Each structure stands twice: as structure tokens, then as C-alpha cells.
Amino acid sequence: MSTLEQIEAAILTLPSDEFQQLRQWFFDLDYLQWDEQLERDIADGKLETLAKEAIADFKAGHCREV
Fold first, then answer.
1. What is the pLDDT of residues 9-32, one digit of tens each?
2. Structural contact between residues 22 and 14, judged by C-beta atoms closer than 8 angstroms
3. To which H or E segment does residue 54 belong?
4. Other beta carbons less than 10 A from residue 4's beta carbon
5. N or C: which end of the chain has fewer CB within 10 A?
């Protein structure tokens, strides 16, 4: 049995309150890692082209308030 399979099996045995805590912990961890990746991408200039396109669209009037 792989480590992942062991983790999955252990999760299935958790009481609901501990499962909720695990779910929240995992959600928070995922959000933090996503946020860190976004910051790295911004610092590396990976989003510069998208930002320029968005600004150009806005200036050209191709945007609307929702």
C-alpha cells in the first residue's frame, strides 16, 4: 500500500469534526501555495502580457461594470 493510499484510508476513518478540520487545513494550505505561486509569477513577469492586454481592453472601452 502506498503512502497516498494509507493517507486516504486514514482520512476515511476520521470523525466528522476532525475531517472538517482537515478539510479546512487543506483548503488553507492550497490557498497559501496558490497565492505564493501567483506572487512568484508576478515577480517573474509571467503575467505582464495579460496585464497589458487587460489595460488595453479597458482603455478601448471593451469592459463593462457587472
1. 999 999 999 999 999 999 999 999
2. yes
3. helix 48-59
4. 8
5. C
